[in-house]
Structure formats: structure tokens, C-alpha cells
Design goal:
It is a single chain. The chain is an alpha/beta fold. The chain folds into two domains: 273 residues, Aminopeptidase; 157 residues, Glucose Oxidase, domain 1, CATH 3.50.30.30. It has 14 helices and 16 strands. It has an eight-stranded mixed sheet, sandwiched between helices. An eight-stranded mixed sheet has the order 3-2-9-5-6-7-8-4. α2 packs antiparallel against α14, α3 runs antiparallel to α9 and α9 packs across α14. The longest helix is centred in the middle third of the chain and has 21 residues. It is elongated, with a radius of gyration of 24 Å. The N terminus is likely disordered.
Length: 459
């Protein structure tokens, strides 16, 4: 018998085997494989502890590209390849320093430069401080009260929000656009309260943008820890004339070449239809990026490892995509969409994990009402695994640019209550991720992908 004929028979046999199983049986096998035979935790161990932080354009980011490409080749994809993408290269430099100068008393506080910020002068920046709580309040104060001062943005994340990502989205504009807006009124620098729900001494970095203002108007901007923000605010009430000093030496370089990492399994029945699962390979530079987004990277790889362990052959073409530069540019997601359009690819489903490696709770879906109803009908299958939340909402930043004639996008929703304790901070390390929670997330992702692969979407 010819080898090609034998392979075809084996594939047909695999398809027939899964057609005889109930969805309940397959999901049980998926969760068993993830909890007893997974590799994702050891992959994360290597990414975090042997490679470390993976800021776009860094040497570690390139090590991560080569490592994950090699590991995906071991899984046994039909093909594994790299997509070239030009990314920003921003370097933090020496550790930042800051202190509150209250009369003659100096009190050190923890800060870190925000991504894309310029440096201070070599001897730092010292100026009076004005506290504001929103971009709108900034505008009401105007140039007269702001010029020559450091603007201190001190709007906390809203602790009343049960969904912590809603609290984050309600506060992050001051981090992203604060420096740009303050510069327009003559500020010499900005300090931003960290995007964090708890009080601690970890400053949280993140992207900021100067927008379209001239480079001559760029001002240095940094995040201050929540404890530091509380102290600065309290001290300002007692002495509105106090000064703040901070020093940072970050620098923006020209863009450099990097890569998305892609692994592909050709579909047996509908190879022209593509299903994507992924996370972003880059991370911020203060820590290992284990939750953001090492967890999503290894969970996405584990999805295909589970299918391999179970001998499952997908109907549709499946891709694992490890996107580069989500944190400070979204270049990887945009490049993937650009190439998909150029190659006239038809994507029917995309799933992203970029909310940490905590216990999975469900999915956030971007799709029309008919497909939302279809996906939500799977809820009862997930109830034994404590997955209960199927909601409409944001799916993921990297899959956000992806377009096709009809596509369903989903984001894994882990329990988010502790996520912002670690997000973009120096404590986002391997020991913050629980092995079992990580594996449960991978199983949950694999289960949804299996169900969509078997049942399709409504065209």
C-alpha cells in the first residue's frame, strides 16, 4: 500500500473515532491531558527563568523567538515559520530614582519610567508638583497653574468595579496620554499613579504616547507605586509647595527587525478556513512577564500539544501565533493582519490569552448575535470545569486587527482579581503563576477550539 494512501486512511480513522465520541467525552480527555501530560509549565519556566524579560527589540525577545520556534517544531506542526516585523527598541537604562523634597526632608519613593518616555537631564528633574485626577481636570487648570511644574496624575483604579479590567480601562488614559496633555500646558514632567488595585511598593510601567506633539515638547514621564502616590498626595496637602525629584536615563532607538512565530496544522476538511490561537511573546522589562504574557504563549502552544497527545486531527487549519510587540506598539498583530489580507486568507475564529495565568472562568466574545448564541450554547459543557462566564466584550489586542468575511474572536477570561497586582511590575515572575491554574486555562482554550472546529461558525 502506498504511504499516502495509508496516511489518508489513518486520518479518516481518526476523524471517525472523534465523530463517535460525545463532546462531553472529548472535553474530559482534553482536561485530563492538560492536567496530567502537559508541557506548558516547563515552557514557562524556561521563558521566565532562562530567558527572562522580553521587551520588543531586546536580545531576550530574539532568544524567545528562537526558543518557541524550536519547541513548536518538536510538537509536530505541519510547518513552523517566522513572520518578519519591524518593532520599536526602547531601553530603560539605569534604575530610576525619585524622592519627595518637603522643606529639607528627602523621602525616597519607588518609580519606573513609562515605556517610550524620554530621559530626564543627567542630574535629574526637580520641580514643584501639582496633583490632578483626570485629563479633564488638567485642562481646567490651564497653563497658568501648570507651567514649569511636574503634573502628578493620581486617579486610582475604581475599586468598586468587580471586573478589574473595567477598573483598569477607566484609569489608564492618564498613563497613556498624560505626558502629551500636560506638555501642552507647559509641564516639565509627569508622575502617574500605578495601574494597581492594591497598595504596595511596586511601580507599574506600561506604554505611553506623545502623540503628534513636536519632539521638542516631549517631557519625561514615570509611574509611581501606589504607596508612593498615597504618600505624595498626603504630603502635598500639608505642603503644596513641596518639590519632587526624579531621574531616569531611558532612550528610544530606531526600529529593529523581529518576528511573529507561527505554527500551522493543515485542516483535513476545510484547509482554506483558518483558526488562530495565540498570545504575545514580548513582555515589559521589569520582570519575567510570566503572567503578561508568558502564560498566554505557553497555553496557546499547549492547545496543539493536547491535540497531538489525543491524536486529534482538526477539520480546519489551525495556527498558533506568538505575536511580537503587543506591549508598546501592536506591530505583530498588525503585521499578521497585513499578511493575511495580502495572502487572501479566510480566518473564521481567533482566540487570545492575555489576561494572566489564573483560574479560567470563561470567554469574552466579539461576534454577531447569532454566533454569540451558538458559542454560549456550549456553556453546559464547561460547567463541570467551573467555566461559567460567556460574555460579549473585548477579545484580545493582537487579534483585534484581524478581519475576514465572517470571524468570531474570543478572549480567555481568567479570574482577574489579582492580575493587576503583577501587571507590568517587577513581581510578574514565574513563582506568581500556579501550575494547575495555567494548565486549566490551556484545557479551557483547547476545549473551545475543539468545539468550534467541530461545529463551525454561522456564516
Amino acid at each position: 500500500m502506498k504511504k499516502t494512501t495509508l496516511l489518508a486512511l489513518l486520518l479518516i480513522g481518526s476523524s471517525a473515532l472523534y465523530a463517535q465520541k460525545t463532546d462531553e467525552q472529548v472535553l474530559k480527555e482534553i482536561y485530563k491531558s492538560a492536567l496530567t501530560n502537559s508541557t506548558c509549565y516547563s515552557w514557562l519556566d524556561h521563558l521566565s527563568n532562562s530567558i527572562g524579560s522580553r521587551l520588543s527589540g531586546s536580545a531576550n525577545a530574539e532568544k524567545a523567538v528562537l526558543y518557541t520556534k524550536g519547541e513548536m517544531e518538536k510538537i509536530g506542526f505541519d510547518k513552523v515559520y517566522l513572520q518578519e516585523v519591524m518593532v520599536p527598541k526602547w531601553v530603560r537604562g539605569e534604575k530610576e530614582t525619585a524622592y519627595i523634597l518637603d522643606n529639607k526632608t528627602k523621602t525616597t519613593v519607588p518609580i519606573c519610567a513609562l515605556g517610550g518616555s524620554i530621559a530626564t537631564a543627567s542630574n535629574g528633574l526637580t520641580a514643584e508638583v501639582i496633583e490632578v485626577h483626570s485629563l479633564e481636570e488638567l485642562k481646567t487648570l490651564g497653563t497658568e497653574k501648570i507651567k514649569g511644574k511636574i503634573v502628578f496624575f493620581n486617579r486610582p483604579m475604581d475599586n468598586e468595579q468587580i471586573e478589574s479590567f473595567h477598573a483598569y480601562s477607566g484609569a489608564v488614559d492618564q498613563r497613556y496620554a498624560g505626558a502629551k496633555e500636560a506638555s501642552n500646558f507647559g509641564a516639565v514632567g509627569t508622575i502617574v499613579r500605578s495601574m494597581n488595585l492594591r497598595l504596595d511598593d511596586f511601580p507599574h510601567t506600561g506604554a505611553q504616547s506623545y502623540g503628534d506633539i513636536p519632539k521638542a515638547q516631549y517631557i519625561p514621564t514615570a509611574a509611581i507605586s501606589t504607596n508612593g502616590a498615597e504618600l505624595l498626595s498626603k504630603t502635598l496637602k500639608n505642603n503644596p509647595k513641596l518639590q519632587f525629584h526624579f531621574k531616569q536615563s531611558c532612550k528610544q532607538y530606531d526600529d529593529v527587525l523581529s518576528y511573529n512565530v507561527v505554527g500551522e496544522i493543515t485542516g483535513m476538511e476545510h484547509p482554506e478556513n483558518i483558526m488562530v490561537v495565540g498570545g504575545h511573546l514580548d513582555s515589559w522589562d521589569l520582570a519575567d512577564g510570566s503572567h503578561d504574557d508568558g502564560a498566554g504563549v505557553v497555553q496557546s502552544m499547549e492547545v496543539m500539544n493536547i491535540f497531538k497527545n489525543l491524536g486529534y486531527k482538526p477539520k480546519n487549519t489551525m495556527r498558533v501565533v506568538l505575536f511580537m510587540n503587543e506591549e508598546n506598539g501592536l506591530r505583530g498583530g498588525n503585521k499578521y493582519e497585513e499578511l493575511a489580507q495580502k495572502n487572501k486568507e479566510n480566518h473564521i475564529f481567533a482566540l487570545e490569552s492575555d489576561s494572566g495565568g489564573f483560574s479560567p472562568r470563561g470567554f469574552s466574545l466579539e461576534c454577531d448575535a447569532v454566533n454569540f448564541k451558538k458559542i454560549a450554547s456550549f456553556t453546559t459543557l464547561f460547567e463541570p470545569y467551573l467555566i461559567h462566564s460567556f460574555v460579549e466584550g473585548h477579545s484580545g489586542s493582537d487579534i483585534g486587527p484581524l478581519t475576514s468575511k465572517k470571524i468570531v474572536k474570543a478572549g480567555l477570561k481568567p479570574d482577574s482579581q489579582r492580575y493587576f497586582d503583577y501587571h507590568h511590575a517587577a513581581n510578574d515572575k514565574f513563582d506568581a503563576v500556579d501550575k494547575r491554574e495555567l494548565e486549566l486555562g490551556a484545557a479551557t482554550m483547547a476545549s473551545l477550539i475543539y468545539l468550534v472546529d467541530q461545529n463551525g461558525i454561522v456564516e
